[in-house]
Amino acid sequence: MSATPNPAAATEFAKGLAGVVAGTTAIASLEGTLRYRGYDIEPLARAGDFEEVAYLLLHGQLPTQREHAAFGDRVAAAARSLPAAALDALARLAAARPDAAPMDALRTGVSMLGLVERDDTPGDRTALLVQAERLLGQVPALLAAWLDLAAGRPVAPWPSGSLATALLERLTGRAPAAPHAAIFGTTLVLYAEHEFNASTFAARTVASTGSDMHSCITAAIGALKGPLHGGANEKVLEVLGAIGTADRAEAWVHEQFAAKRVVMGFGHRVYKDGDVRAKLLGTMCREMVRGTAGDALEDLADRVERIMLAAKALKPNLDWPAARVYHALGLPVNVFTPIFVVARMSGWTAHVIEQVGDNRIIRPLSIYTGAAPRDYLPLAARG
Ligand SMILES: CC(C)(COP(=O)(O)OP(=O)(O)OC[C@H]1O[C@@H](n2cnc3c(N)ncnc32)[C@H](O)[C@@H]1OP(=O)(O)O)[C@@H](O)C(=O)NCCC(=O)NCCS
Description:
CATH architecture of the largest domain: Orthogonal Bundle
Strand order of the largest sheet: 1-2-3
Bound molecules: coenzyme A
Shape: globular
Number of helices: 16
CATH topology of the largest domain: Citrate Synthase, domain 1
CATH superfamily of the largest domain: Citrate Synthase, domain 1
Number of strands: 3
Number of domains: 2
CATH class of the largest domain: Mainly Alpha
């Protein structure tokens, strides 16, 4: 452990904590390629089994068939057990603000669950694991319930099947074809975990204060919402829509550069030579839509990729193909980031448990740049 530096002597800092190692983790590594608990992301993504990955992240090893089935049953049971008090409150909010962003509904919903389920202290590891598994099922159910309530419909029951199949059915209103459920599962696996990203770090920071699981997750959802983080997947579709056709791509991209705007879905703090997840999912997306009207959007995406690479050596991140997959599956844009929440719930809760298990409060330093010392003048003397 390093000694605490003298704050008065500090003259240098890493803006955005770029390059700063802020702790240790056994959950995921980005060295060489992305690995979850030592397993290469590629076979996990191809299997596309979100329950297997969530179990791995939370419990540390891949489940046996029996463990997998029991885990899936617990998560599905949680999806069917949203507390009535939370649903009632959500119904009133939906009646008052039916056009609210589903991300806001999720952030509020998780906070409400913390109150209703009386989560006011971090329990031991076993209690935290129970909470994590409950949240894994409750959060997608909250999302689906919000969409029903905001549309003025009664809340439909949670369907049978894997979390990916059930959620896709709830979001589209029909049982998905097997290949669609499979690629949707792959996106959940790819979004599940990513080391010390901003939302996970937010969750760990809250956990480090001794606060409760629901407070950690509420903070994480707020952090994920930002367009530089999870919110980017919703913006990607705006980008493709704004460009419209491949012949306009070059001019549009250079307009963004001239206006000093970032192009959503490109660049990454850690991956400077491309995001392995984007490569994997990009290929799958192209295969899924081949021979359909979706080919045109893929051609446009290819064109933008080539321009970004040539102009700025920037490569796509996961949000770039994920947005196109969700669009091809017929999902509305305002559920793209909430789906990311559903998936990252597994990584966030695993990190909260890891932080609680070996905690020291997260409290960095700053360099003061404000006014020089000055004397206080009482209000009455200030005129
Ligand atoms: C992800 C992101 C926030 C990383 O930020 P960062 O690590 O601070 O960015 P970098 O240090 O790599 O940026 C280096 C340069 O590339 C530029 N750049 C990075 N991403 C860019 C993008 N998507 N479009 C245009 N320019 C970009 C930066 O503005 C910077 O330019 P400068 O040197 O002239 O200031 C940033 O790439 C971004 O805003 N991307 C778009 C949003 C997005 O897709 N987010 C999802 C991330 S998974």
